[in-house]
Amino acid sequence: MSSSLLKEPREIDEIVYRFLEISDFEKGFSECLQQLTEAKFTKSQFIDRYSELKKQPDTYFIVVAEDLKKKKIIACGTLFVEKKFIRNCGTCGHIEDIVVDKTYRGKNLGLRIIEQLTHIGKKLGCYKLILDCSDSNVKFYEKCLFEKKGVQMSLYLPMSKL
Amino acid sequence: MSSSLLKEPREIDEIVYRFLEISDFEKGFSECLQQLTEAKFTKSQFIDRYSELKKQPDTYFIVVAEDLKKKKIIACGTLFVEKKFIRNCGTCGHIEDIVVDKTYRGKNLGLRIIEQLTHIGKKLGCYKLILDCSDSNVKFYEKCLFEKKGVQMSLYLPMSKL
């Protein structure tokens, strides 16, 4: 993941926007994600998953915001890039797992993360970006220039690994 | 993609359910997808994309239904598997690009494709499967055991590859 994919300015008010790094485990990446949903993992699990994602560098783009003074991850979001056959063998970017630390809300950090992911998607040549959200977040994403498209449906599975 | 991931029976009424193969270009894979959206591509583009997806064998699972008499692809669907940090570094399956040839509708082929993709997702240990659809398709996916979860939002981009 080249940092040239990121949108300037990457540093505002002592907050830097950059790609996830392996040292972010110590900077509270897990604690940030836990404000979205269950996201506890050990350092070893983090390193294994991080290494797996690194092997698919054109698929996973995880942007974090760090408070440089506190050396703390205060927001993050993922662009997960799908290679399709439709749309002239086009690519579609899926925006996933957007979260802003609760003590930093109201400062447009979520908007900045989405701007970064959108910028990356454009640079990669994605023909569209999609995301799923709750009704209560529709207005936020409209501010990020997204439009309502359809219905998200889900099926929770018993985990039965091979 | 091991065919052992597929759900039995894979062959019913001279229709076989299996993973996409490189010979499916000649069997009308593009023509099938075109009934969903713009999906024209040359044989060379198909082979290039197919080869790219093969390099990510734990990410892309494309199931097709073939009419064995006609040697024709009559339905297809994709499971696109995302490795996350949340949910104990869990995996989420995205169901994409489901289409059934219009002359074969009403025969439960769409249901069979979703059953195959769900079965694969279970075998892979996905904690959930998600998909986006129009309001008019909600009832179909409810029959496939999916539930309404949220709102899908999209942003169409000008394609500006690096």
From TrEMBL, chains A, B:
The keyword Metal-binding does not apply. InterPro entries: Acyl_CoA_acyltransferase, GNAT_dom, GNPNAT1-like. It comes from the Eukaryota. Residues 15-162 form the N-acetyltransferase domain. Its EC number is 2.3.1.4. SUPFAM superfamilies: Acyl-CoA N-acyltransferases (Nat). CDD domains: NAT_SF (cd04301). It catalyses: D-glucosamine 6-phosphate + acetyl-CoA = N-acetyl-D-glucosamine 6-phosphate + CoA + H(+). It is an enzyme of class 2 (transferase). This is Glucosamine 6-phosphate N-acetyltransferase. It comes from Dictyostelium purpureum. The lineage of its organism: Eukaryota, Amoebozoa, Evosea, Eumycetozoa, Dictyostelia.
